[in-house]
């Protein structure tokens, strides 16, 4: 292979050029958002539009405004609460379901798995009417915590499917050893399966966090009070508030809401990839 | 395994219970209720006396001109964005798989649009494609490709073009990561023996790579088709269905009928038309892949 290196060089240069081009397209709108958030609010729809603000006009006034609003912190906290609760509950519920489906034969097991897979096909938004009726019946509308059971229900199929695939790759001998020692189903689940399946649970949890963090149609439909809104609704509300959208504020808030996701993404890189890997191969 | 003791059976039941409860109550029940509702006359005027009207809602949906536009828009969106994302994602994956350095850096950069929420990216695109926005400035004043600014967001095709570009741009990174994982699991020996047989890079790609990653292609195809029919937030934020409901998709139109006009029975029937279409497409995709399998072996 090493003798080919000289011939490889030109084609590698072509590869890097193409990848840089694609990378630029991927990242440019994001950079434009950040640069717009750093322009003075009056200079929006300037002519000619500038990709970067002139150095002496860079300002953090949009951020100062956003961070001076109590509403922002409430919306931010709302999003954190909803996302964390969704992730924790979904992780437990889906792992337990996946474990039972992967390891035991019980009546209706096949039907249950078929239902889980089948519901993945139906777009969540199509159920919004009857879910809304259900939410009103349980007095969950216009309540922050009312979002959580619906988010959990949405992510269960995909999470269960992914975790089940991973659990099936764990040798049954681990379970058997515990049963031989007189351990119970609970012992196997909590002491063996959960720790061993933690990479799959982690990847699924990251996706679930993203889902809950960015969910829009449901939160838009059931939450009315500004105090109860999550970030996506607050951002979209900012957008529609005035006839002339204050793009500086909109993008400053967008950047602020993107930061936690970016941090999680960069810290948990390997779980993003391993989660998709199992999905791709098993699917 | 078979459960021997009563205690173990009880514990399996306890582990199943929360998931079953949430799933049955918040997913299965709404589906069944929606199906029931789709056969009823159920709108703001008839809240108290819902009447069984058979397939009337379905007839209304299928004969509704706006639904046809919305359905055609959704189909177009799916037909353009699904292959668009897959081809670009696979191309990027093949390139990244072949380079010696900066693989992780490129993966991270391409994945950033994926993790950014739909509300945010839709607003960015709306800003870029605004009539007085950056793109028009570049097209008109810098490149002189157009005489006057294009009113992207004021027409059916303009609005859909922006939404489709957004869909592809946001989706490439997901495809890249999925395909990169698949590429790395293709056995190296296959390439070596193909090389001995005198295959060039392109032949290797078509005769070794593509057949080996077929399960991943099918997985991506099914997931992305569902995603394509799910398009909602971007349309709502970018065009809001304007002008005159010309850029509605099936879900934005369903939402409008349910929450703006209160036609719940109609919206329920619409939901089932969408669900049945998706199930049909998924079965079709599985069949097509299986047939190709049979033809190859």
What does this structure look like?
The complex is a heterodimer of chains A (283) and B (297). Chain A has one domain: MetI-like (MetI-like fold). Helix content of chain A is 74%, strand content 0%. Chain A has helices spanning 5-37, 61-67, 70-103, 109-121, 128-137, 147-168, 172-180, 185-196, 198-214, 217-222, 231-241, 247-267, 269-282. In chain A, helix 3 packs antiparallel against helix 9. Mean pLDDT of chain A is 87; it is low at 279-283. Chain B is mainly alpha-helical and 297 residues long. Chain B has one domain (66-296): MetI-like fold, CATH 1.10.3720. Helix content of chain B is 74%, strand content 1%. Chain B contains 13 helices and 2 strands, in the order H-E-E-H-H-H-H-H-H-H-H-H-H-H-H. Chain B has helices at residues 6-37, 56-62, 65-98, 103-115, 118-128, 134-142, 156-184, 188-196, 201-212, 214-229, 233-238, 250-259, 264-296, and strands at 40-41, 51-52. In chain B, strands 1-2 form a two-stranded antiparallel sheet. Chains A and B meet through helix 1, helix 3, helix 4, helix 5 and helix 6 of A and helix 1, helix 3, helix 4, helix 5 and helix 6 of B.
